[in-house]
Design goal:
- The chain is mostly beta strands.
- The chain has one domain: 5 Propeller (Tachylectin-2, Chain A).
- The protein contains 4 helices and 28 strands.
- A 5-stranded antiparallel sheet has the order 17-18-19-20-21, with no helix packed on it. Strands 1-28-27-26 form a 4-stranded antiparallel sheet.
- The longest helix is centred in the first third of the chain and has 20 residues.
- The protein is globular, with a radius of gyration of 23 Å.
Length: 426
C-alpha cells in the first residue's frame, strides 16, 4: 500500500498535534504515587499535648516591652518560616502597635492593656513581620510606611482592601538558582458587610523578599478569584504550604457562610516558581489542572468534617496530617481536631482526636475564642510538634471587639502547645 506523500504542511500539522498532546500530558497528569512514601504511611491520632510556656512568654515579653512604640503588641495569623541564617520570620495579620500600660500592682487594675502615649486607641495595621534570633527571642518588628506613621509591611492593594500574610517558604529565586528568597503567600481581601465583615475573598498573591535583609521586592497575583460572582465559592490558598521533593503544595479553603466549615483545596507549584502564576496547578479530583476554576475539594466540609479558613498541614514521616478547628456540635471556637492522609490530595481520614487548649482568664471568658491552629515543624523537639493558636474576644453580634481586646493584652497574642501524634496503623 502506498502512503500519501508527506508535505511540509502535513508535517507541521503532525508536529502541532504532538506538541498539544505533550502539553496536555504535562498538565493533565495523575499524581504520581510514590511507593516508598505510601509504604511509610500509617494512621495518626492526636493523643496528648502540653503547654509551651517558653514560646508564649517570649512573645508576651516582646509585646509588653515599651522601649519602642512602633512595634508589635499583639496580632493574629502566627505563621513562621526559618531563614537560612538561623533566624525565624513570623508573619502576623492584623497587628496592634504602640505600647502596653502595666499597672504597678493588681489592686483595682488586674489586667494590662494596650494604649498610646496619650491614652488613645492603639494603631491597628493589616500585617506585620516579627524577626526572632536563632535562640527564639523576638528582636524587631517590620512594618511599612514611615517611622512616624508605620503602615502594613505588605501594602494595601490599589482600590481598597488589604493583604493578610499566611504561609511562607525559602526557595530559589528561580529553579536551579543559587540565589534564595523568601516567598510569602498573601490573602487579598476587600471590604464587606454582614457575613463578610472580615472581608470578601478576592485572590491569592505572592510576595518576594530578599535575603538576608528581608526587603520587599514584589507582590504578584497568582490566583485571582474575583471573577467568581459568589464570594463563598472563592478559594484563597496558603493556609498551609508543604514542600515535598520538587513541589510546593499549597492548601486553601472556601468560606461558605451556610455551613459551619469550609472545604479544603489543593494546588501545587514547582519549587522556585511560587511567584509564577502560570506554574500553578490545581487538583480537580483526578488531575492537576492549570485553571483554578476546575479545583475540587480534597476535604469536603460536611457535618463535623471541614477546615474553616485557617488550618495547618505537616508531614509526619510518610503521613500527611491536617489540623483544624473542630466543627462538632457544641465545640464552637474551642477545640482542635485533625485528619490524616497518605497523599496531599487524600483521601483524608478523620477527625482524629480532639484537644481543647487553655484560654486566658479575661474579664469576659465566656466569649474568648480559640482559632487558627498553626504548626511550626522547624521547632519540633522530643517534647512534640510546636503548635500555635490565636485567642480573641467574640461577643454578642454588634458588640465592637476592640475595646475588649485592647483592654487585656492576654487577648490577641499567640499561645503555644507541644502536641503528640501517635501512629494507629494503616
Amino acid at each position: 500500500m502506498r502512503h500519501p506523500p508527506i508535505t511540509r504542511s502535513t508535517l507541521a500539522a503532525a508536529l502541532l498535534v504532538l506538541l498539544l498532546l505533550a502539553v496536555a500530558a504535562a498538565v493533565l497528569v495523575p499524581t504520581p504515587q510514590p511507593g516508598a512514601d505510601l509504604a511509610a504511611c500509617t494512621g495518626r491520632t492526636l493523643t496528648s499535648w502540653t503547654v509551651d510556656p517558653a514560646t508564649t512568654a517570649a512573645f508576651a515579653r516582646y509585646g509588653d516591652d515599651n522601649t519602642r512604640t512602633d512595634d508589635w503588641t499583639g496580632g493574629d495569623g502566627t505563621h513562621s518560616v526559618r531563614l537560612p541564617d538561623g533566624r525565624t520570620l513570623w508573619l502576623f495579620s492584623d497587628t496592634f502597635l504602640d505600647r502596653v500600660h502595666m499597672p504597678p500592682n493588681s489592686q483595682g487594675a488586674p489586667y494590662s492593656w494596650r494604649t498610646t502615649d496619650t491614652g488613645g486607641t492603639p494603631s491597628l495595621r493589616h500585617n506585620s513581620l516579627v524577626v526572632t534570633n536563632s535562640s527564639g527571642t523576638p528582636e524587631r518588628t517590620l512594618t511599612g510606611g514611615t517611622p512616624a506613621l508605620p503602615g502594613p509591611f505588605f501594602p494595601d492593594p490599589p482600590g481598597g482592601g488589604w493583604r493578610w500574610p499566611v504561609h511562607a517558604t525559602v526557595e530559589p529565586r528561580a529553579p536551579g538558582s543559587a540565589d534564595r528568597v523568601v516567598r510569602v503567600l498573601l490573602w487579598n481581601r476587600v471590604p464587606g458587610t454582614g457575613p463578610w465583615a472580615f472581608g470578601i475573598p478576592h485572590g491569592t498573591d505572592v510576595a518576594t523578599l530578599s535575603l538576608p535583609d528581608l526587603r520587599l521586592e514584589s507582590i504578584t497575583p497568582v490566583a485571582d478569584q474575583s471573577a467568581l460572582a459568589d464570594p463563598a465559592r472563592r478559594v484563597l490558598y496558603g493556609a498551609a504550604l508543604v514542600r515535598d521533593g520538587d513541589w510546593n503544595y499549597a492548601f486553601g479553603s472556601d468560606e461558605p457562610h451556610s455551613s459551619p466549615a469550609g472545604s479544603g483545596y489543593l494546588a501545587r507549584v514547582p519549587v522556585g516558581r511560587l511567584a509564577d502564576g502560570a506554574a500553578w496547578r490545581y487538583w480537580d479530583g483526578t488531575h492537576w489542572h492549570p485553571d483554578a476554576g476546575k479545583a475540587t475539594p480534597v476535604l469536603r466540609g460536611s457535618g463535623r468534617r471541614g477546615v474553616g479558613s485557617a488550618f495547618t498541614v505537616v508531614r509526619d514521616a510518610g503521613t500527611w496530617v491536617l489540623l483544624a478547628m473542630d466543627n462538632a456540635a457544641g465545640a464552637g471556637l474551642r477545640t482542635i481536631t485533625g485528619y490524616w492522609a497518605c497523599t496531599p490530595h487524600g483521601p483524608w481520614r478523620g477527625p482524629i482526636g480532639r484537644i481543647t487548649p487553655p484560654r486566658p482568664a479575661g474579664p469576659d471568658p465566656a466569649h474568648v475564642v480559640v482559632y487558627n491552629p498553626q504548626a511550626h515543624p522547624e521547632f519540633t523537639t522530643p517534647a512534640g510538634l510546636l503548635l500555635s493558636y490565636d485567642v480573641n474576644w467574640l461577643g454578642p453580634p454588634g458588640t465592637p471587639p476592640d475595646p475588649i481586646v485592647n483592654g487585656d493584652v492576654e487577648l490577641y497574642r499567640p499561645r503555644f502547645l507541644r502536641i503528640r501524634l501517635t501512629p494507629t496503623g494503616p
